[in-house]
Amino acid sequence: RQWARNGVNGAHRHYSWHSHVQKYMRALHKAWGKRHRHRRLRAKSRLPTVDRIVVCELDNTLLGDPDALHRLLASLKAADGHVGLGVATGRSLDSALKLLRDWKVPTPDLLVTSVGAEIHYGHRMVRDQAWAGHIAYRWDRNALHEALRVMPGLKLQPKAEQHAFKISYFMDEKKAPRVRDIIRHLRLKDLHATVIQSRGMFLDVLPSRASKGLALRHLGMRWGLTPERFLVAGYSGNDEAVLRGNTLGVVVGNYSSELGRLRGRPRIYFAQAEYAWGIMEGVDYYDFFGAIRIPEEEGLEHDGDVAGISA
Ligand code: GLC
Fold this sequence. Notes:
alpha/beta; eight-stranded mixed beta sheet; 11 helices
């Protein structure tokens, strides 16, 4: 009888309409409070108000030629605040921020760092937690590390270059297997990862849902921008995924040979000019600060004020 009474009392306490409403209201207050804090943070970010973003690799692309950099920053500033600046780099967040300080570049509106392992926003460097949650899927860092230990020609990069979602190696191309064989080796062990080789000397292993390209797709959905609203500039292998996206790609004149295979692909413009001059050449090519034109697709279809097709 005692147990039966406890059961009835317990059910009233935990499962009655009254307690359900109380719990619901508590959860609502909690979420509402968080939302208010979130809105204050966001108010500092320019992202909700920009309608297009220039996203650049740092090394040998945005940085490298001081005159070009200052011209590009000046034209971004002159663009009336509707053009955002983003960075997508292989470097860690700390290393990217230090480099930006050294080159006196104002904090970008967004940073995709460690080849897409992390996304941060604005001055406060707010981390995109949704992205972290999304890419954690099927990521087993220890097992991947263990499986690659036996591979010849791979040597771990220093600790500062490693990340919870990125294992980076120096790669000796003569001794190491081909990337496709490395991926096959991992698959046989039921391990899932994105494997990226750059400049004939780096190998990055990331979650299968992570790359700079996928990070950009996430950003587009999050901030309500179609791919044509991103102009993406890069120069080496770790930019390939981001350039292959449906965004407007620019390969700067001083690119690394592995990007040569992207020639002829739609929406990838190979600039003659180097470093940030090349980015500006791409901005002109697409009229990115104006009506946004995609020359090879002109006349096919129209999407708002953007000429071209979107898939
Ligand atoms: C940067 C990173 C390095 C990475 C390389 C290629 O140099 O510091 O960890 O392997 O880019 O993505």
